[in-house]
Specification:
By secondary structure, this protein is of the alpha/beta class. It contains 10 helices and 8 strands. It has 2 domains: 228 residues, Spore Coat Polysaccharide Biosynthesis Protein SpsA, Chain A (Alpha-Beta Complex), CATH 3.90.550.10; 73 residues. Helices cover 50% and strands 17% of the residues. The two termini are 22 Å apart.
């Protein structure tokens, strides 16, 4: 006999969100309990160095439906989310951030939309929060991703989403080491829909995403789902080869027609061409190296995360 599923699981990866735990629980629990008493709230601590774990355990003393999965170190948001996806038992699974930028109250309209027969319902931000740099960077990444990958991600989509059990099971079956859950979510398909939600300023604490993490996430997502960058550098190499042949023919024609003769003049052109071709070659090798590096991590088959303790 199979294990009976809960109706709703709420997944909350957290890192140094101590000041947000109690306000989040105070707003989240009434929303969920207005729908069902069969639920679980799964916090995954991703290597916090503040009192996040202690605050979650205090909240758990009040509500025993709170579960804490403590990872052994910081693995990253998407790996922490994967730990929750592996553990959760809900028929419907809510994934959201713990910073209260996406309001818990938005769960209700997302659930209502899912009742229309959709498998995944995601929040669509009415406006992007954060700095101009972060807004432009986020939209630029999604635009580039959609151009390079046929499995589209919605513009302005938030992390907050609700998935049904078959979608969660499909993601959990995917073994790759590089995890980008939102992209995997779009790859598995099923019926999607978006619902507009308000986007609030961060309640407390600081964002964990700096420019380097944003670039790394963008590279992980694009290079894990598309071979187009490799095709582009092949085309670049082919075009440069054609231009080199054409340039050689022009030089040969100039010699034959006495338009130009060899001499010291022209060394600048040679130096510039060498630096240009050297730069293109390094760029291409770097891109190939990114793909090879991902193959390297895949073949080692290390686990996505390591659990220190589970407080259930």
């Amino acid at each position: 006999m199979g294990v009976r599923l809960m109706q709703i699981s709420v997944l909350l990866p957290v890192m140094n969100e101590a000041d947000n735990i109690f306000p989040l629980v105070d707003r989240l629990v009434p929303v969920i309990e207005s729908v069902t008493q069969s639920y679980e709230i799964i916090f995954v601590d991703d290597g916090s160095t503040d009192s996040t774990v202690e605050n979650i355990l205090q909240a758990k003393q009040i509500n025993d439906k709170i579960v804490l999965i403590k990872l052994s170190r910081n693995f990253g948001q998407h790996f922490a989310a994967q730990a929750a996806l592996d553990y959760c038992k809900g028929e419907r699974v809510v994934w959201m951030d713990a910073d209260l930028q996406e309001p818990p109250e938005a769960i209700l309209p997302l659930l209502a939309k899912m009742n229309e027969g959709y498998d995944v319902v995601y929040g669509v931000r009415k406006s992007l929060g954060g700095s101009i740099f972060k807004r432009v960077g986020s939209l630029s990444y999604i635009y580039l991703f959609n151009k390079l990958v046929k499995h589209q991600q919605p513009l302005n989509a938030s992390v907050m989403r609700i998935m049904n059990r078959k979608c969660v099971d499909a993601i959990n079956k995917m073994p790759e080491r590089v995890r980008f859950i939102t992209a995997l979510n779009s790859w598995v398909g099923f019926r999607w829909a978006g619902v507009e939600i308000d986007y609030s300023p961060r309640s407390a604490g600081k964002t964990k995403y700096n420019i380097f993490k944003m670039i790394n996430n963008a590279l992980d997502a694009i290079l894990s789902f598309s071979m187009i960058p490799l095709k582009v550098i092949s085309i670049i190499g082919f075009v440069i080869s054609l231009l080199s042949i054409a340039f050689s023919l022009c030089i040969l024609l100039a010699f034959i027609t006495k338009i130009w003769t060899a001499g010291v003049v022209g060394w600048t052109t040679i130096v510039v061409a060498l630096f240009f071709l050297g730069g293109v070659q390094m760029m291409c090798l770097g891109l190939i190296g990114e793909y090879i590096g991902r193959i390297y991590f895949e073949v080692k088959r290390r686990p996505h995360y390591v659990i220190d303790a589970i407080y259930n």
